[in-house]
Amino acid sequence: MQDDYRFKIANREALIGVGLVIFNFIWWFAFAYGMGSKDPEEYSYIFGLPDWFFYSCVLGFIVMAVLVAFIVKKFFVEVPFEEEVEGTEKE
Amino acid sequence: MNWEAIIPLIGFLIIIFGIGMYAGKFVRSSNNFLDEYFLGGRSLGGFVLAMTMTATYGSASSFIGGPGTAYTQGLGWVLLAMSQVATGYFVLMVLGKKFAIVTRKYKAVTLVDFLRKRYQSKWVVLFSAISIIIFLFSAMAAQWIGGARLIESLTGLSYTTALFIFALSVLIYVTIGGFRAVALTDAIQGTVMFVGTLVLLIAVIIAGGGISSIMADLMAENPNLVTPFGKDGSLSPAYVSSFWILVGVGVVALPQIATRAMSYKNARSMHRALIIGTIVVGFIMLNMHLIGVFARPILPGIDVPDTVMPLIALEVMPAWLAGIVLAAPMAAIMSTVDSLLLLVSSSIVKDVYLNYIQPKASPNRVKALSIGITAVLGVIVFLMSLNPPELIIWLNLFAFGGLEAAFIWPVVMGLYWKKGNKYGALASMLVGVGLYILSDFNLFTQPFGMHAVVLPVVVAFFAYVLVSLATQSKGTNEMKI
């Protein structure tokens, strides 16, 4: 039972979650503090919002939403949750 | 009284009741009462799952101050709030399929159930149940106060009457409908929040003469409001980043979230919930907090941050529309209260009573007790909210961080690390909660100015790993996963 094939899939998907959150954090942090640390007088504006905010929060959110949708559709595997007999079949 | 704003709100409450009744039918006809009442028979589909998760996170943000704080701090607080986008995918991916499979195998209905089966330790269970009862009880009382204040400010009724109306509506439908009622209404409330914040944001932008002119006004008032650093430059990158733990990834360990992560029907529901959840959480967080910031030039000088949402809605929109839109924060508060109420009662009935007091209780007795305790808890919280004691407010601030410090490693490592055992889990919980409470008394400084939750979570991790490794030779009989 330790080698339930479903757990391999589950482990991989959990790692993808960790990877995504690290990517999300870096994107968010780099744009916010990379572009936002200069004098506010020097900010440029996109759709009326300061550039650091637009890239970090607005674009960052859109990028994450698209990325999550893509990864889930492409790499996530549907497995049964209930106990079943043919538990050793390969993905 | 502002009837034009009140009528939509009443309509909303009536719809909610209807759902409670509808869901109650499932509870009455179910042959597995505990599974149905506390988990909705593990049958949630993708949309409902995403929405119930969102509505539950949505209130985690009212915990950190929400739009009112954004009003005070400017764009820096919106940046902080956006750390919650991570919850939309992270929780379901990390607990994920493993949690869904394992909790089914264990027949676990609550987070504590899972811990009990995984670690086979009475002390782990009792400590968990106590943490949940204390921390969530206090979180709940504060939410009730918030709900009552909203009704009070909208209707002009007295605080006590408002609290009474709020309490009654929550109690009736939680008691009859159980988790399915909560999840279904969460789906409606999540939708109301989604649409409501969008409508309000647009109205605010129009009232402020466009985003550019709002930004120019903010610059003119205080340039710090458009930087990531808060009104006086005090939001340091380390402090803001540490919210990624408090309201981002740490949310994995909140019992109300974990319960949802075992309630869905199948892998397809989970996949849909991941996509919908990420979009909806991000969208609501961004809009809700931007409303707070944009409200500032339109309505300067609001002293009580909690009143920013109702005041700005009544300012920029016709009263009837404001009533509909204000159903959104009301929705957020109600959905939190409902799920917390259900959790605390499940902790008492399932985790303590059924495990250690009367394991052979008959199904009918369990049923009567579950409904009875939920109702009694509601009454106690009501009485506490009438005249909130100091301690409750203090505890509420700690509820989220405390639960995260207690549960994050026993849950996550318990799922993915075979060597984790009850000694490690207990050490991790004691160290996490202990350090977290101590850090409030400023007994030591927070490294790099981070939020008080960070250090306990880090130390609890090492406690879990080291103690588990050190006690490998002791034959423990926990279930292998």
From TrEMBL, chain A:
TM spans (from-to): 12-32, 52-72
Which InterPro entries does its entry note? DUF997
Instruction: Tell me yes or no: is Membrane among this UniProt entry's keywords.
Output: yes
Q: What is this protein called?
A: DUF997 family protein
The residues forming the signal peptide are none
Q: Which organism does this record belong to?
A: Ornithinibacillus caprae
Q: Keywords, A to Z?
A: Membrane, Transmembrane, Transmembrane helix
TrEMBL record, chain B:
Residues annotated as transmembrane: 6-23, 44-64, 76-95, 123-145, 157-179, 191-216, 236-254, 274-299, 319-345, 366-386, 392-416, 423-444, 450-471
Location in the cell: Membrane
Short name of one Pfam family for this protein?
A: SSF
| Key word Zinc present | no
GO BP annotations of the record are: sodium ion export across plasma membrane
InterPro entries the record matches = Na/Glc_symporter_sf (IPR038377), Na/pantothenate_symporter (IPR011849), Na/solute_symporter (IPR001734), Na/solute_symporter_CS (IPR018212), Sodium:Solute_Symporter (IPR050277)
Kindly indicate whether the keyword Transport belongs to this entry.
Answer: yes
Offer an example of a GO molecular function term for this protein.
pantothenate transmembrane transporter activity
Naming one, the record's GO cellular component terms include:
plasma membrane
Q: How does it sit in the membrane?
A: Multi-pass membrane protein
Report the superkingdom from the record.
Bacteria
Q: Which UniProt keywords apply?
A: Cell membrane, Membrane, Transmembrane, Transmembrane helix, Transport
What family, per the record?
Belongs to the sodium:solute symporter (SSF) (TC 2.A.21) family.
NCBIfam families cross-referenced by the UniProt entry: panF, sss
Name of this protein: Sodium/panthothenate symporter
Origin species: Ornithinibacillus caprae
Name the encoding gene, please: panF
